[in-house]
Amino acid sequence: MHKLLARAFTLLMALAFAQTLAAAELGEDGLHKEEWFAMTFRDIAEDIAQAKGEGKRLAITFEQRGCIYCKEMHENILSDPEVRDYIRENFMVVQYNMFGDEEVTDLDGEALTEKTAARKWGYVFTPTIVFLPEEAPEGKTVAEAAVATMPGAFGKWTFLNMFRWVKEKGYEREEHFQQYHARIINELRAAGRLGDGE
């Protein structure tokens, strides 16, 4: 019995250690970094084409130093294997610093910095995740072209369901995201994956 308990304890400690290693680290800019986030030249049209070439969709995440909600997203949502694996498989995610100075090229060709892009596009919350179409439209800004925007921090299922809704092109159908999300939650509850309070 003691050997069984010792093995169980060792396994739990190994899993906890592995999860710690997988956690996002802080970069020099103070943002949490996921090793699977894409590093690009931040030319939005090129990034959309690259994502499509990889069979994915482009998502931009705006974050900032000291953002407790960004920390929560990285430590409790993106660390969840179900969430992380789905996003990695279906999306190319590029991280932007809401107050950063890296150069960005908007879809309309205007050269910006990360911070002037955030202002131009009207993004004021962190994290904000912006979902782009499969093809880069000409003459539009990112804000005009976005098929969906998720401002602020949400729980696992709202977060994951938004990515699923975009991947399934829910924005082209009659079922609004809130209806889609409610339906998925009801299906998860019926399958015993959620309690009544979730």
Automatic annotation (TrEMBL):
It comes from the Bacteria. SUPFAM superfamilies: Thioredoxin-like (SSF52833). Pfam families: Thioredoxin_2. Residues 51-135 form the Thioredoxin-like fold domain. Residues 1-23 form the signal peptide. Gene3D superfamilies: Glutaredoxin. InterPro entries: SoxW (IPR041737), Thioredoxin-like_fold (IPR012336), Thioredoxin-like_sf (IPR036249). Keywords: Signal. This is Thioredoxin-related protein. It comes from Aquamicrobium terrae.
